[in-house]
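User: Predict the complex with adenosine monophosphate.
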Amino acid sequence: MRTVFVGPPGAGKGTQAERIVKQYGLLHLSTGDMLRAARDAKTAIGLKAEEYMSAGQLVPDEVIIGIVTERLSQEDAQSGFLLDGFPRTLVQAEELDKSLKESGTPLDVVLELRVPEEELYTRLASRGRADDKPEVIRERLVAYRRQTEPLVGYYTESGILKTVDGTGSIDDIFGRISAILDAYK
Ligand code: AMP
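Assistant: Here is the predicted structure with adenosine monophosphate placed in the model:
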């Protein structure tokens, strides 16, 4: 199964992603985790990315697209993956489609996790990551609405979008997600 997780920061994608990949045997690819690892390792890309991450902005498309397409070409991605935090712009989505089409392995399903804005602030404020400071949170939510939310329309048009209510307990949300993903096993 090849799937993408879309949702604003604080929607609970990371938590649910861990359970999904365990249940369905998928490779979990979080671009946020990949960029934080690159930053901590002080690679050139990581240091460049940090300038954007610390401001709550998206890193440039050309940086992230290269990282992801390279990763997806590796052996352990061939039996299925869950992309978490990518794509985040229409350009990224189009490039991903193009690259997956070339290898004859298109996406099966895109999950959109929907959570009301007020709840996102509460959840993010209690998390304590460096980019979870109030002013950076605001920037990240603005970036989501402006740059990432258009993907909902894009994948609706492709006919592969499924929207999931991201409120309630972790178990409730996972129940809703697995009711959808079971059809793609
Ligand atoms: P996340 O952990 O997914 O919230 O990502 C943390 C930060 O990494 C974001 O605020 C962006 O600065 C950067 N980032 C992660 N994924 C992407 C992406 N697909 N495109 C651009 N920037 C990204």
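The beta strands are 2-6, 27-30, 81-84, 109-114, 161-165.
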